[in-house]
Amino acid sequence: MSGRDPLVWRRAAAIRAKEWAQVWLDPSTFGLVVLMPLILMFLFGSAVTLDVRETRTGLVDLDHSEASVDLAASLASNAYFAIESGPSVAALEPALRAGQLRGIVVIPDGFERGLVAGQPLDVQLLTDGTQVNIATFLTAHLRGAMRDWTQARAREAGVVVQPVVRLLPRYTYNPELESRYMLVPGAIGIVMAMIGSLLTALIMAREYERGTMEGLLSTPIPIPALVLSKLLPYYVLGLASTAICVAVAVFGYGLPFRGSLLALFVIASAFLAAVLGQGLLISAATKNQFVSTQFALLSGFLPSLLLSGFLFEIDSMPTAIQWLTYIVPARYLIPPLQSVFLVGDVWSMFLPNILALLAIGGFFFLRVTRAITRRIA
Question: Could you tell me the domains of the chain?
Answer without folding.
Answer: 6-48+178-371 (no CATH), 55-156 (3.40.1710.10)
